[in-house]
TrEMBL record:
Residues 4-144 form the Nudix hydrolase domain. Gene3D superfamilies: Nucleoside Triphosphate Pyrophosphohydrolase (3.90.79.10). Mg(2+) binds at residues 54, 58, 115. It comes from Nitrosospira multiformis (strain ATCC 25196 / NCIMB 11849 / C 71). GO terms for biological process: folic acid biosynthetic process. Keywords: Hydrolase, Magnesium, Metal-binding. The keyword Endoplasmic reticulum does not apply. This is Dihydroneopterin triphosphate pyrophosphatase. CDD domains: NUDIX_DHNTPase_like.
Length: 157
């Protein structure tokens, strides 16, 4: 049996409203761990395609209906030990690309039961404190400097 490993390139999508409410998802495999939409790039996908796919898979939302923006922020971090088995044996680090998805108000979402237990919309300050990932917290704080517009990069479409 050939094992298919994850590509160590991922996206982080901060889904937010103009008044800076941020959508968070609680991980099913780690109750109490809250995060924004994240996911690894599939072979042959662009980063925008990865972002659109992951938003749809994790929330049921069609990112193409909203303002998806590449924030031109790239983070490199060491993959948590507990999740390294998903990657090739020599892989220890991941490169994460940050996007924003501006929605008009806290829209209803349907979480993927295999991945998440529940969701919540929080003011950006609370969201930044609640997420477990430092890069996720930093991206949410960055939203505040953008005034909720989340458009300091290139439009993803």
């Amino acid at each position: 049996m050939v094992r298919i490993y994850k590509i160590p390139v991922s996206i982080l999508v901060i889904i937010h409203t103009p008044d800076m409410q941020v959508l968070l998802l609680e991980r099913a495999d780690h109750p109490g761990y809250w995060q924004s939409v994240t996911g690894s790039q599939d072979e042959g996908e662009t980063l925008v395609q990865t972002a659109v796919r992951e938003v749809a898979e994790e929330t049921g939302l069609d990112a193409r209906r909203y303002a998806l923006t590449d924030w031109n922020i790239v983070n490199e971090y060491e993959i948590y030990e507990e999740w390294r088995w998903r990657y090739a044996p020599e892989v220890t680090h991941n490169t994460e690309h940050v996007f924003g998805l501006l929605v008009p108000h806290p829209v209803p979402v349907s979480v993927a039961a295999r991945e998440h237990l529940r969701h919540t919309w929080l003011p950006w300050q609370e969201a930044a404190e609640k997420v477990f990932s430092p890069s996720n917290a930093e991206a949410i704080r960055r939203l505040a400097t953008l005034g909720g517009k989340g458009n300091n990069g290139n439009k993803g479409q």
